[in-house]
Amino acid sequence: MSLLVYALLAGLFYGLYFALVGIGLNLIFGVMRIINLAHGAFLMLGAYGAFYLYTLLGWNPLWAVPIELVVFFLLALPIYYLLVPRLQRSDDPEMLSFILFFGLSQVIEALAVFAFGNDQHSIPDAVFGTRPLHLLGQVFPLSWVVSAGIGLAGIVAIYLYLYRSRIGRATRAIMTDRDEAVVTGISVNRVSVLAFGVGIASAALAGIFSPFMLGAIEPSMGLHITVMAFVIIVIGSLGNPLGTVLGGLIFGEALMLMQTFLTSWAQLFPYVLLIAILLVKPSGLLGRKVRSA
Amino acid sequence: MLRRSVMRSLLVAAALAASFAVWASPPSMIKIGTLYAGSGKFSQASTRQYDGLKYWAKEINAKGGVYVKAFDKKIPVKLVAYNDQSSTTLAASLYNRLITQDRVNLLVADYGSVLTSVAIPLARVHKVLLFDETGTSGKFFEPKDKNRYIVLTGLPTSSEWPKVLADFMQHVGIKKVAILYASNDWSGSQADTLNSTLKSLGVEVTFYESVPDSTSSYSTILRRIAATNPEAVAEFGYSTNDIAFLQNYASSGLHFKMMFVPNPALHFDVVRNAVGDAAIKNVYSYVAPPLIRYNKQVNFGPTLDRFEAAYTKAGGKNIDLSTVAGYNTGLIMGKALAEAPKFTQESLRDSIDTFSGKIFTLDGLFKVNAEGAQIGESLPVGQVLPTKKGLALLPVFPLKNAAAKYVYPQPANP
Description:
The complex is a heterodimer of chains A (293) and B (414). Chain A is an all-alpha fold and 293 residues long.
């Protein structure tokens, strides 16, 4: 029983973090119909940013949060203007983006090897304090709580952006029907660049906490994380950022329960779940809602 | 049609084998073909291993080349190297390219068992001796295969690694052990040996399970292990696994009397920097060069101290086991060329038998069995202990090799 409670709570912490990992990828897809296969590469860069702020300046990773949000948002702007409008003019932007952003991820990885080397790095958990959190008779690393808390804060911020702001309404309008949004006078380019910036910044934000949740950081970690993020958003619903929260929670709980009770099969189950959901409900668990939003 | 294509393939293989068989006149240079992983999960260790080999080539060329007994002269060496990006698929085609197109004289495998595995059948079918630097899987050296075209130059086969560890556990009176391993051959063979050796010693193995290589969170697994009440926990995985495992253990609030992970022996600075001093202090691991130094026993090539000084002076990074393994492979190749009466792959292999067990390099005693497996070296047990220069991984067992007294039970994390 104790193991089950631990697994469920651990799954909750991980689920909130996984939701943060996936939400930027889904936002970009929802608005621009672009599959950003460089998502994990930006997360990797965010992780290195936190690592170097910690090792070179001794800064707590929490200080990296505002810095990286601004830096990566600004970094996303030229990337957007260089790549996305051209993609949108093509006959098949989804497929082309698949190839183009895969290429971008490889370029980022290669540059990261030059810049950071191949050694694995991490940030000690003790950076958030050595006293663990006691919850329902279980003990959890404080770094998990912080990571999950930041994940939750990120999700809430994106919810407020989408549902409580004028630009968010415009964003949802584009996600629902891009052509109708254009007809109603919404500046698709302005909304898209903002969503692209938020998506990349959220990836960097997740990267800051990846040493505590995903283990060591290294230049080649991006592709694996992109695949994981893709699974999370497909489980929730491709194109619905808030479906990602559900996808993240399911992914986190499934992973932790499997690690606890069927250790050797732990990495397999989330993907089996993905296949099952695609067969039973191809639009994802919240697929219908996104179209009626 | 099928028969004709089979015949054609056999003729091509025979022609290639012949091209490796005999050189009537000395070549202008000795071409050494190898691969390295410039990216991907093996890149860190692979590039360091390649750096070690490159340094040997540079050093030997500065002396006029490598002495080749078959021609009684020194001949410069040239490295032909390709980046396999940690991909076995790419590595297979690149090994093939080195053999069939570049016609290298000597073939050196990339780092580790995974990237070496694809070279073995190619080397065998083309009758090229493969210098295996760190591919320690026991499966490569099965007596039933009767493969004479492979020599493991450095570490012992991975199934041999935990034998001293099992002895240590018995020495300190451990009765219950949990074993967790990543599902790769290197980790699995160590876990398998430890499991069977402990059982033969009457030690109870309370937990014996594998996790996928990509596992990056161990907290729930640690809870399961704790539920079986082991005194010692041994985790076998790659360095990414060890880093996540140690971090999760440090923050778990759990305490075991002994915690063992393998990778501090291979990349101590990398693991230590990643997890921090608090998480690695008192942890047990193997000890391998450069963390153990056989300076007094070395009778072939430089001592580790001299190599380290020269290597870093030449601009190299801090040395680690991979660097030493790369350089050591160069030494063994040089010795084989210096001893082989003929410049053929078979003669090179036979010459290795003549000096096996007689030379002691900076990596330890070089001794191979009939299958080419390294049996001269053993890996002592070490523990991360405080020294005047900070934390260091020091040999603690066998007691005759000990540089420090082990701390058992391990104190709990602060």
